[in-house]
Amino acid sequence: MHPTLAADLARLPELLQTARDFAARELSRVDERPVATAEEAPGPERLPADGVGAQGALDRFAQRWEPGFSGSAGPRYLGFVTGGATPAALTGDWLTGAYDQNGSSGGGSTSDALERETVGWLRELFGLGEAHRGAFVSGATMSNTVGLAIAREWLGERLGVSVSRAGAAALGPVTVLSGSPHSSITKALSVLGIGRDRLRPVPLLGGEREAVDVARLAEELEALDGRPAIVVANAGTVNTVDFDDLRAIAALKERYDFWLHVDAAFGAFAALSPAHASLVDGFDAADSICVDLHKWLNVPYDAAVQFTRRQDLQVRVFHNESPYLGLPTGTPDFLHLTPENSRRLRALATWFSLTAYGREGHAEIVERCAALARRLGEGISAVPGLRLLAPVHLNVVCFTLADRPTAERLAAVARAVADSGEAFLTPTVLHGTPALRAAFSNWRTTEEDTDRVRDALARAVRGLPAPESV
């Protein structure tokens, strides 16, 4: 054994304690850490010929890289939809690395059974029935990709071809219908060989709504003259957390032949709140579902889950043909269900958090985030120079400048807020109007944090040049 490696092995308990102390110190002050950093990244160094050991590596990280890391684990990082890591989830994530289980199959370990138990808990959490089976994947993009890959195989089944054998070209033109699809949907269509241009936008309900007009969706399906299609419904849109009428869309299956995929990356968690659970009414009717867990479940990156009613088609797409792996029979190993053969045991962090806090603990996070989003919405409405672009439906606040809301002026506001270290927000466009959005999903966020974000926005708006001088 290399002497440096041998020395680290001999000191492993001490090294782990040092890493624990380092992490605990940083997390203890994450509330006050600059949420975004203006630090310039250090220049690249040459690959070390002789290593410095684990302690030396930690020291170099602390000196060169740690100062430039953002406070994205903290309570005022409101960009994208980013959770933090609950204490239990972080514990599970550390143990995931320590045990380093092969999460692909059940050979020699019970880790696959833990993943199945955790998937079952999530199914129950979201109100899904036994017909839905699932697996952990890396994030919402991969979850959507897996769901649409199964949908692609279903299209082949309906048209009498095997896409997993003959390829996507055997399908001919494919129609994918959606109202306000996330960008990961078109990315998935590209990866799957269906094509980004096969997505056909369906008109929305109008006003500030991002929900699909179900009557217009029915017209689009009628125009297909019986040819099967894929419908992507949204349970929580990016800008305003609007929800398609899932039950009404599912009812269309009585007349039309289509696969219903529901992108519920963070909207699925509305099921935990009695005040918002009606938003996911009809969720169980979906053929495939995407839920991201490093968002509102607050487990570390990267973790998501996918569900489907047709695990037989999922196996047909993803099974790994090799003599040493065997054929997928009965309950298939996870390597036959997702694109990855090598899989980290992502389920462990989720198992820890669900075990530690249960349904009620996670419901409290959801309801608190929704209340804080409403609080910020009310605060923004009272800030001169800002206006809401849509009502606060759940956990996202979408707003813009009251006067001349150009992309450049909104970017200047976002930059000023980020440079202050107080918060981080991301830009968007809602129905043609440039905007900013604040997404609440972190378990740490409080009313005080929310008020600090409001005040940082007010200062940034006051510091903008007058529109006529821009």
From TrEMBL:
Highest taxon, organism lineage: Bacteria
GO biological process, one term: carboxylic acid metabolic process
GO MF terms held by the record: aromatic-L-amino-acid decarboxylase activity; pyridoxal phosphate binding
InterPro entries according to UniProt: Aromatic_deC, PyrdxlP-dep_de-COase, PyrdxlP-dep_Trfase, PyrdxlP-dep_Trfase_major, PyrdxlP-dep_Trfase_small, Pyridoxal-P_BS
Requisite cofactors: pyridoxal 5'-phosphate
N6-(pyridoxal phosphate)lysine carried by residues: 295
Region described as Disordered: 27-50
Keywords, in A-Z order: Decarboxylase, Lyase, Pyridoxal phosphate
Pfam hit, one: Pyridoxal_deC
UniProt similarity note: Belongs to the group II decarboxylase family.
Entry protein name: Glutamate/tyrosine decarboxylase-like PLP-dependent enzyme
Naturally occurring in which organism (per UniProt): Streptomyces nymphaeiformis
Lineage, uppermost ranks: Bacteria, Bacillati, Actinomycetota, Actinomycetes, Kitasatosporales
